[in-house]
Amino acid sequence: MGKNGYLPLFETKPAGGLVFFRSYAASIFIGICFICFHRVSYFPVTERWVWVGMFVAELWFSFYFFITVIVKWNPVFRSTFKDRLSSRFEEEELPGVDIFVCTADPRLEPPTMVVSTVLSVMAYDYPPHKLSVYLSDDGCSDLTFYALLEASRFAQLWLPFCRKLKVEPTSPEAYFQTTPEPVDDVFMANEWLIIKKSYEDMKNRIESITSLGKVPAYRRKEHNGFDEWDFVLSPHHHPSILQILIDGRDPNAIDIEGKALPTLVYLAREKRPQIHHNFKAGALNALAFDNLTENEIYGSLRVLMKLELAGFDGNGGPCYVGTGCVHRRESLSGMKYSEELAVELKAMKYDKKIIGSASFNEEDCKALASCTYEENTPWGKEKGVKYESLVEDVLTGMSIQSKGWRSVFFNPQREAFLGMGPTTLLDTLVQHKRWGEGELQILLSKHCPFVYGRPNMPLKLQLSYCIYNLWAPNCFATLYYVFVPSFCLFRGISLFPKISSSWGIPYLYVIFVHRVHSLVEYVWLGGTVRGWLNEQRMWMFKRTTSYLFAAIDHMLKLFGFSKSAFAITGKVADDDVHRRYEQEIMEFGTWSPMFTVLATLALFNLLGLIAVVTNNVAIGDARMKIFDVFGFQILLCYVLVFINLPIYQGMFFRKDSVSVWSTEPETRTADLRSDSKFQSVKLQACNTRFVFKEKRSKLVSCICNFPYLFIITYKLLKLLFENLD
Question: Which domain holds residue 371?
Fold first, then answer.
């Protein structure tokens, strides 16, 4: 029983097994101390800079491990008691809820998927007269508006159906894909079929018009709102468009059972070429992931969403990650939290009496969505969602916390929100490149958590933000570890203690125990062993490509060579891509400089492994001695080759991969060890002409034209195979 005489609405519990985690963290720390002592004590006379580089990389990994431990040191989990809500509050005392759904491109985010999301939130178990749903269309597409118009009609059938059958999930697309027809009740089975057919008919109409690329004239006559597109010059040059498709205040806005419908609004904010529109952040201010495969081939946010955010909660409050979040309107309006404000908020009552017709309010509110409304105002700086950031969500959440507001993390047993994850490797890497660059931008700006959040954020929460702010810098230590040990195998340089040495024990312990803990953690959170392997693969791919390009791009921006760009992740794939995704076959898609980096590193490590194997076969009796001296580097090479198996498959065996380079030599060199023939291969590589299927900027070309290294490695590998034959 609470202080006010009511039963609590939620409870907070610390995570279980913290003793084991803290013991594990302490043992890893001891192992790291031994590794550091070995690096300092056994400093080589020759190749000292290579040794120093390894030591610096290991210090970086140790520091990042320390940040990770802080995040996971005291996670808390919350559970709610929904049945107690009605005993605490009358329906009229519940607050009004505005739900924002954002879309930007009907080609990448199909209108059928968007309206299915809209219908799912309209069907929430909440008083409809207190629920408003806004679709913000930054693509200003009449195709999306038409889809929303169809959804507003279908809602009259869908919402009563959801109430009657207690439908879960409330997205019609997800529901009909996962729920079989009820067979034990003939009446309900008939109604189920009727609703399904109505949804499929609506979906077919939307998809057929989307495929045409325009709304036919006879469809445009169905609603006056289509007249607004007569003034649209392009998606980036048009006036504000605001249409109230369902007015929750209208007594005639009811479903087939006579129950009120929630308000449904379409908004396309004004855009002009000469005025920056601030991407998604601007769209949100104008208004104020279920397709994963079983083994998550492109990785997932499983650990982040299910554990790390709970750790943030234990350290002072989770960060805002852009979706699945509920804000108090006052927190977004720039108000600082105080005890006086808390008293005012508790005394505040909800009142939704608005004078005027829907058409009057449409015209009146268009001014709020104009591109000049925010000029010389605090919006985007002190109020609302923050501008000038590629991760506007994280920056906005940090701003809210710095003003004294407290956030909490709630992850119900049934996922509250489901989204669409990328279905190609390139989309995944591009998405993480944007996230990594945005996080680095925050760290190196005045919004650094150690400065921006100092007044109201505890130190442990400020440190927690670094787990994401340091994504991009992680690339340098990772690249060093991926490339240098394999390179030193060719030179016969040992970078680790002997396997037989007692100094090898801390290395083995830290590597083995750290990875075992990662596997156990991943499986405990609901993943699979194969999913964990895919996660490790993507961990390396992202660090050696996404975060590398994120770091380079941000450095270029700091020196004024480029500007920020917001990349939309595709949510739709063609049939062949979708089929391979469902089969968990890695999809490479079109050419990208990121693939050049991946291919170079993959081939280099494969070449190193082949060289080691051939040397071991040739030497024979000295095989164990070589393994004793170079064992750690050989094992690392084996692991890297295993991680890169999809890369080799795509390069040498798959017929569906896009070939973006021509590397066929005009002559063949017989002896790999001949310096003169190596120079011949190098010359041929430099004369190779690349064929790219997409235009690239000169800047990107300059940065990414180390494919010559890739070509050299590729040709050496081919010659090595020929030599072995």
Answer: 95-103+105-278+335-348+362-383
- Enter the pTM of the model: 0.79
Pairing between β-strand 263-268 and β-strand 241-246 as defined by DSSP bridges: antiparallel
Q: Any idea what the Cα angle at residue 391 is, between residues 385 and 392, rounded to 5°? A: 5
Tokens representing 713 are 């490695």
- Helix 459-469 with 48-72: angle, nearest 10 deg: 130
Q: Are residues 437 and 278 in contact, defined by beta-carbon separation less than 8 angstroms?
A: no
Look-up of token digits 């759904």:
101
Cα 310 to Cα 58: distance, rounded to the nearest angstrom: 28
Q: Are 426 and 588 in contact (CB under 8 A)?
A: yes
Query: Measured between alpha carbons, how far is 303 from 146 in angstroms, rounded to an integer?
Result: 38
Distance CA 407, CA 324 (A): 13
**pLDDT digits 0-9 by tens, 488-499:** 887 888 999 999
Give the Cα separation of 707 and 598 in Å (integer). 11
Gap between the Cα atoms of 213 and 200, Å rounded = 20
The pLDDT of residue 576 is above 50: yes
Is the separation of the CB atoms in 432 and 301 below 8 Å? no
Active site amino acids = 138, 393
Q: Are 172 and 197 in contact (CB under 8 A)?
A: no
Q: Is residue 609, in this structure, part of any structural domain at all? A: no
Contacts of 639 (CB under 8 A, 6+ apart): none
Q: Which residue is it, tokens 């929460």?
A: 461
Tokens of 472: 């991009």
- CA-based nearest residue to 323, from 26, 569, 665: 569
Q: Is residue 663 in some structural domain?
A: no
Question: CA torsion 137→139→140→144, rounded to 10°?
Answer: -60
Helix H or strand E segment including 246: strand 241-246
Is the distance from CB of 82 to CB of 320 less than 8 angstroms? no
Which secondary structure element, helix H or strand E, spans residue 176, and what is its range? helix 172-178
Q: What's 15's DSSP letter?
A: P
The tokens of 688 are what? 């190779």
pLDDT digits (tens, 9 = 90+) for 5-59: 678 888 999 988 899 999 999 999 999 999 999 999 988 877 888 999 999 999 9
Q: State how many domains the chain has.
A: 1
| DSSP β-ladder status, 97-103 and 76-80 | unpaired
With contact defined as beta carbons under 8 Å apart, do 318 and 309 qualify?
yes
Cβ neighbours of residue 636 closer than 8 Å, sequence gap 6 or more: 481, 485, 486
Contacts (Cβ under 8 Å, ≥6 apart) of 14:
74, 75, 76, 77, 314
CA 220 to chain centre: 37
Contact in structure between 346 and 88 (CB atoms under 8 Å): no
pLDDT tens track for 70-118: 999 999 999 988 888 877 888 878 888 998 888 888 887 889 989 999 9
Cα 292 from Cα 421, distance rounded (Å): 6
What is the rounded distance in angstroms from the CA atom of residue 213 to the CA atom of residue 142? 9
Cα three-residue angle 168-427-323, rounded to 5 degrees: 40
Asked if residue 243 belongs to a domain, the reply is: yes
